[in-house]
Amino acid sequence: MKNKSAGYLYVLLAITIFAAQDGLSKFLAEKYPVIAFTMIRFWAFAAFVMLFAAFSPGGLRQAFATRRPFLQMLRGPLLVLEIIVVVYAFTVAGLAMTTAIMQATPLIITVLSIPLLGEKVGWRRGLAVLVGLIGVLVILNPTGIEFGIHLIWPLLGALSFGLYGIATRAVGREDSAVTSVLYTGVFGAIAATAIGIFYWTPIAMADWPALMALCVCGTLSHFFLIKAYGMLSAVEVQPLTYLQIVISVGIATVIFGESIGFNMIVGAVIVVAAGLFTVFREHRLGIK
Fold first, then answer.
1. Distance CA 121, CA 78 (A)
2. pLDDT, tens digit, for every residue of 102-114?
3. Tens digit of each residue's pLDDT (9 = 90 or more) over 113-156
4. How far apart are CA 85 and CA 133, in angstroms?
5. Mean pLDDT of 211-224
6. Residue 45 burial by Cβ neighbours in a 10 Å radius (0-12, 13-18, 19+)
7. Average pLDDT, the chain
8. Euclidean distance between CA atoms 98 and 248, whole angstroms
9. Quick one: average pLDDT of 39-65?
10. What is the pLDDT of residue 282?
11. Most buried of 37, 68, 176, 251, CB within 10 angstroms?
12. What is the pLDDT of residue 114?
C-alpha cells in the first residue's frame, strides 16, 4: 500500500509538470520556431535517459538491446512530430482547446490498434469510441462561429500521439520500459537536431530561464512517470492523468487569458469518460 501511495504521488507530480511544460512551450512558441527549442529539450532528455539507462541493471548495453529496432528508432521521431504539432496548436487553437481535444488520444489508440496491432474491439469499446467522437465534436462546436481550420492542428496532434502510443504499445510487448525510453530520447534528439539546426534562432537572455525550465520539466515528468508505472498498473495511472486537463485549463485561463466555453467543458467530460471506459475495459481483457 505504501508503494501504491508513492506511485500515485509520482503520477500527480508527472501530470503537474506536464501541464507546466505545456505552458512553457506555448510561451516559447510565441517567440521562436517550435523545432528550435524542441531540439534543445530533446538534448536534455537524451542526456537524462542515457544516464538513467547506464545506472539500470545491465547498463547501456542491455538497455540498447531490442527485438524491435526499427520500431524503437521510429518512436523518437514520432514523439518529436507530436510535440511540434501540439505546441503549434497551442498558439493557433489555444492551450485549453488543444488539451481538451488531446484527451481523445486513448480512443484513437483503440481505433488504430485494430489495423496496426490486429486487436479486436468489441461492441462496448466500439460504442465508447463513438461516444468519445461525439464528445470531440461537442468540443469543436462545428455549428458555432468559432469553428475553423485552426482546430485541425489539435486533431493532428491527437492522431500523431495516437501513432506514438500504438508504437509504444507494440514495443512494450517485448522490450523493457528502460529500453523504450532510451530509444525515444536518443533517436528523438537525432531527429530533432536533423531538422532543428536549420531553424535555429538565438534565444534572448530573458527567455533562457523558461527554456531551461522546459528542459528540466521534460526530464522530470518522464522520470516520475517511469517511477509511477513501476509501482502502479496502467489502469491505476490513467484516471489520474486526466487531471492534467484541469491544471492546463487553469494555466490557460489565468496566465494566457484564454476563455473556456461550456461546450469545451461538456465535450471534455464526455471524452474523458469514454477514454476511462476503454482503459478499464482493456485492463479487464488483459490488453497491453
1. 25
2. 988 888 888 888 8
3. 888 888 777 778 788 888 888 888 888 775 554 567 788 999 99
4. 20
5. 91
6. buried
7. 87
8. 10
9. 94
10. 67
11. 37
12. 84
Whole-number Å distance between alpha carbons of 170 and 38: 25
Judge contact between 22 and 225, C-beta under 8 A. Answer: no
d(CA 17, CA 249): 14
Overall average pLDDT of the 207-216 stretch: 96
Quote the pLDDT of residue 288: 56
Q: Which residues are CB-neighbours of 98 under 8 A, at least 6 positions away? A: 86, 89, 90, 153, 154, 157
What is the torsional sign of CA 109, 111, 116, 122? positive
